[in-house]
Amino acid sequence: MDYRVIALDLDGTLLTSQKQVLPESIEALTRAKAAGYRVLIVTGRHHSAIHPIYQTLALTDPAICCNGTYSYDYQKHAVINSDPLPAVDTEIVIDALRQADIKGLLYAGDAMYYEQPTPHVIRMQAWAEQYPVELRPVFRQVNDLKSVVESGEPLWKFALAHANLTQLHRFADRVEAAAKVVCEWSWTDQIDIAKRGNSKGKRLAEWVSAQQLSMDQVVAFGDNNNDLSLLERAGIGVAMHEAKQEIKDRCQVVIGSNDAPSIAQFIESTLL
Questions:
Q1: Taking the model in full, what pTM does it have?
Q2: What are the counts of helices (DSSP H) followed by strands (DSSP E) for the chain?
Q3: Which of 203, 222, 265, 266 is deepest in the core (most CB within 10 A)?
Q4: Catalytic site residue 9?
Q5: How far from 155 is each of 90, 151, 196, 246, CA to CA, in Å?
Q6: Residue ranges of the domains in the chain?
Q7: Which is catalytic among the residues 9, 11, 83, 223?
Q8: 5-82+199-271: CATH homologous superfamily?
Q9: Are strands 190-195 and 181-187 parallel, antiparallel or unpaired?
Q10: Structure confidence by residue, pLDDT tens digits, 114-125
Q11: What is the pLDDT of residues 160-216, one digit of tens each?
């Protein structure tokens, strides 16, 4: 097969546990681009939280953000294609979060909004301090998340974490029954909530088709449930060592840890 696209999840995959890109990964991806590969980030992150990584890798193709809710062109500073959350479903989720006393982060427009700082927000802000201001993720505190809905900004997704996983599972089931949304696990204690029908695999397939390529020509790397639509549709789905067994079982290849140069070694040995 003539593989032409490398699609990379970030957290738990391309990024180490310290949220860094390994030098070996940068070098291997630079060589892959020189060899003609198209390299795309396909992530659950907001585009403002991808920017420093995008610049580090010197990418030119769009990024697929918020689990396929939209794709973003950094050259034009513009959203390309998107399927945001309807306002009515967003408000249902906000009401459900309050009833369950779970803190949520709402990704919308060019920023991520929160009512009270969560550990996720605090960690991301600390991580961002290493980068110039213009590359840092944009967080904004508001008194009421419904004010973001009323602003008319496009509503991308919710990200929420909760220590009690049983309660989080129950919350996800209730929200999916009440609104036209999908809840996907993006980390061991984190659920992302987006418009039903959106997925990483679907959005990437749209872009691939527009390039007159096929998903059989894609090599995809991921580690969690929100990556499955990507991993299963790619010509080669590559799971990281830390991925759950159910993810590994649905991929053709399992490689080493994201804290080791596993992605670089696979690219060098298999694609170059």
A1: 0.95
A2: 10, 14
A3: 222
A4: yes
A5: 8, 10, 13, 31
A6: 5-82+199-271, 87-194
A7: 9
A8: HAD superfamily/HAD-like (3.40.50.1000)
A9: antiparallel
A10: 999 888 889 888
A11: 988 899 999 999 999 999 999 999 988 778 899 999 999 999 999 999 999 999 999
